[in-house]
Amino acid sequence: MVTSYLAKRTQLVLSIHIVDSRHEPTKQDLELHEWLEHYARPRLIIATKSDKLSNNELRINIERARRTLSEDTVVAYSARTGLGKDQVWQAIDSALTVFSH
């Protein structure tokens, strides 16, 4: 039921796929990514807990997530420091703007 809802619901203009920046994308992350690709659903991948890594570790892990998930953009995000917040809201705003036109 959820699969059908997510695949066919035109009002869902952006899926936010949250991954943990400290770890390699999991099997479930890969499955969700493949599902979103299969149904051509717009998505944004957000790597949370980015404040828990050094700048070098974060750079390496974000690149690994990009390669593993075959995505150009993975947003490093931290609720604690606000890193990535503006980029996330910009992506949401852009998706809503496209939908409303």
What does this protein look like?
- With 101 residues, this protein is of the alpha/beta class.
- The chain has one domain (26-100): Rossmann fold.
- Helix content is 50%, strand content 15%.
- The protein contains 4 helices and 3 strands; from the N terminus they run H-E-H-E-H-E-H.
- The protein has helices spanning 2-8, 27-38, 55-69, 85-100; strands at 15-20, 43-48, 74-76.
- The protein has a 3-stranded parallel beta sheet, sandwiched between helices.
- Strand 2 (43-48), helix 3 (55-69) and strand 3 (74-76) form a beta-alpha-beta unit.
- The longest helix is centred in the C-terminal third of the chain and has 16 residues, at 85-100.
- It is globular and about 40 Å long.
- The termini are far apart.
Question: What's the gist of this structure?
Answer:
The protein has 4 helices and 3 strands.
Q: What is the strand and helix layout of this fold?
A:
Blueprint: H1 2-8, E1 15-20, H2 27-38, E2 43-48, H3 55-69, E3 74-76, H4 85-100
Parallel strand pairs: 1-2, 2-3
| Strand arrangement across the biggest beta sheet | 1-2-3
Radius of gyration: 14 Å
CATH topology heading: Rossmann fold
**What does the oligomeric state look like here?**
single chain
**Count of all domains:** 1
